[in-house]
Each structure stands twice: as structure tokens, then as C-alpha cells.
Amino acid sequence: LDTARKCFGRMSHHDMVSWSTIIAGYGSHGKGETALEMYMEFLQSGLEPNHVIFLSILSACGHNGLVDQGLSLFHSMTKDFGIEPKLEHRACIVDLFSRAGRVEDAYDFYKRMFPEPTVEVLGILLDACRTSGNVELGDIIATEIFMLKPVDAGNYLQLAHSCASVARWDGVGEAWIQMRSLGLKKLPAWSFIELHGTITTFFTDHSSHPQYEDIVSVLKSLSKDIRNLGVDFKSSQIHLIS
């Protein structure tokens, strides 16, 4: 962050991209108050905020528990700048309340501000119910999710995890039974790479790729070379060996 701030300070011109990036950077690294200070500097620069700037600062407030500040900024979008909040901004407020443990307020805001049901936002609320142990509201939200996407395996897994978090093992079993009865399966994690116009996919713990052996051999060779340079791989992170 210090290096990013120095680079930002050395720029001859600050545009919307640089401002939103530095604000988002502070917000996502636990520096919510600094993100707010940068937002105030942005306003003093003479520029007017757009949707992206507000998304960055609202997200910063959400990640740092700055509920009152986030709500004030959300209302200022329309009041002070005539900007109509998009779905992403409204979702930020749901997340803001949820992270602060105010799940009832988050759900009330969702009901008032989302004229159309939105599965992704309901997912935020269901996770918040799991974290806070709000079983009753969690059941209501789960029902709404299944009405929107009754054959999505991810929804049943999310419900199972929510039930498990409050030791509702009957609910866990019911979620898995419903998945099996609908023939649903959890999709494995995967990634892809595009090379010379061809897209190749890779699935977790799969060795079905026709060049699997060659890929593994190259990775082992690269790992050996990297370790020889003094880098050690542990716990999915890279640590320099002193």
C-alpha cells in the first residue's frame, strides 16, 4: 500500500481509474478510514464521482464495518450528485449490513430496494444468516432462493453449510437428499487457458487431459528450478528462504 500511495503521488494526472483503484486498495486491506480520506481528497480535486468511485468507497466501508459512513455515502449518490444507485451499489449496502451482523436490516433493505428478486444478493444474506446464527431468517431466504433456482446444486450446498453451522443436522441431510433426488452434483473447481485461439480447461484432481503427464513433468521441473533460487512453497503461499 505504501508503494501504491507513492506511485499515486508521483502521477502527473489523476483520473477516475487511479482514484477508484487507490480507494479500493485501501478499503480491501483494512484501511477504511484512509479510503474515506482519499475519497475526500478526490472530491477536493474538483472531479465528480461516478458509479465506479461510489462502488469503491461503498465496498471499502463494507469491508471495514463503517456502516453509518457507508449509508451516508449511498444516500449522497442521488441527493448530492444525481446518480441513481445500480444493483451493485445496493448489493454493497446489503453486504455492509451483513458484515456488521445486522442481518435483519440487510434483509429489510433488500426487500425495499430490490424490486426484482436477485439470487446473488440472497446468497449474501444466507451466508450472513449462517454467520450470525439467524436460523429463522435463513429458512425464509433459502425458500426464496429455491423458488428462483430450484435446480442449482450450489444453492443446496449453501443451505447445507448454513444448517451445519448451527448444528441442524436434519437440515443438512434434507438438503443432500433433495440434491440427490433432483440428480444434482457439485461441479468440480476448474480453470482455463487460451492458447493460439484454443481454450483448454483444467479440473481439480483430474488427470484426463491428453497432455497431463507432460504438464506435470514441466511443473515439477519449474518447481525444482524455483526452489533452487531460494523459494519454498508452503500452505499455498510462497515464502522466501532466509
TrEMBL record:
Cross-referenced InterPro entries: PPR_At4g14850-like_plant (IPR046960), PPR_rpt (IPR002885), TPR-like_helical_dom_sf (IPR011990)
GO biological process, one term: plant organ development
Single GO MF descriptor: RNA binding
Keyword terms: Repeat
A Pfam short name: PPR
PPR repeats: 15-49, 50-85
Gene3D superfamilies on file: Tetratricopeptide repeat domain
NCBIfam families: PPR (TIGR00756)
Record-given protein name: Pentatricopeptide repeat-containing protein
Native organism: Davidia involucrata (Dove tree)
